[in-house]
Design a protein that fits this description.
single chain, 294 residues, mainly beta
Length: 294
């Protein structure tokens, strides 16, 4: 029996050692926090990266995708549609089991910033940059077409360009740019059209679909953390999502907004997996949430 235990231990050690060599400086941890959802965290050293991946089985009938706005709409709305709220607070309100930040947004009287220079706070009047729909109710439209993640009434999920949700849509989350289409990386667009361009890496949040539309992959990348995580360019994000098997990929808001949180099984509280660059989670305009039937 001792010999068997010894050989088992040696085999386990060799397996770990072989994986360490194979991964070329990457450390990967995988768990299954929710039925139909696999969460993967990966730390790389060349270049320095921290990735958080959620692979979602869209064919699992217990899973439900929803787009949820931030806080209550302003009393005198005008162009303002909602108020900013932290993703974990939205998740608690909506009883989400997993949540990530959503669309780009504009907040009244606030310019974009990071860390102590960020003045985004809960309760500020805001509006999305792209279309938005929750449970069949449109609450934002766009003058120009923007790529969106769309959950249709029949529960199929697509990535398509819209100015406003269609008649067969149920949930719509705007973003941009589209990084992969028909399994091919889309050339990075001009800087005047989208933020975070060129060869500079940034924290990012992206979503992608496999060809059959059976799996949704959500990727959050930490960045702007010297010595810890650099972030990724659009081209690097496209390559990463292609590696993960996606044929359609949409970029969401990034920078200080990038966040992935999951519900802890023992307490039910939301745990933020990555490290937002403000030093705490940023209040945002909307989120993509996943609920699992208990």
């Amino acid at each position: 029996m001792k010999d068997v235990k010894f050989l088992t231990a040696i085999f386990a050690w060799l397996t770990i050692a072989a994986w360490s060599l194979f991964s070329a400086g990457a450390e990967t941890l995988t768990n299954y926090p929710l039925p139909g959802v696999t969460c993967i965290s990966e730390t790389r050293t060349n270049p320095l990266e921290r990735l958080f991946i959620a692979e979602v089985d869209l064919k699992n009938p217990r899973l439900h995708l929803r787009v949820a706005p931030g806080g209550p709409a302003p009393e005198r709305q005008g162009k303002w549609e909602t108020t900013l709220m932290e993703p974990t607070h939205i998740a608690a309100r909506e009883k989400f089991d997993l949540v990530v930040n959503g669309d780009f947004f504009i907040a009244k009287g606030v310019n974009d910033g990071e860390g102590t220079n960020s003045h985004f706070a809960a309760g500020q009047w805001s509006r999305t940059e792209g279309p938005a729909m929750t449970d069949g109710k449109t609450w934002s439209t766009s003058t120009n077409e923007r790529p969106c993640l769309v959950v249709h009434k029949n529960q199929t999920v697509t990535i398509e360009s819209l100015t406003e949700p269609g008649g067969d849509d149920w949930q719509v989350l705007g973003g941009g740019p589209q990084l992969v289409h028909n399994g091919v990386a889309v050339p990075a667009p001009a800087a005047v059209a989208w933020p975070h361009q060129g060869k500079v890496r940034h924290p990012c949040t992206v979503v992608g679909l496999d060809k059959p539309g059976a799996r949704l992959t959500i990727l959050v990348v930490d960045g702007r953390k010297p010595g810890i995580a650099l972030g990724m360019t659009y081209d690097e994000l496209a390559a990463e999502m292609l590696r993960l098997g996606c044929t359609e990929v949409l970029n969401l808001d990034g920078g200080g907004s990038s966040e992935m949180a999951v519900s802890e099984a023992d307490t039910g509280t939301m745990k933020i997996l990555n490290q937002p660059t403000d030093g705490h989670e940023r209040a945002v305009v909307n989120v993509l949430g996943i609920t699992v039937d208990k």
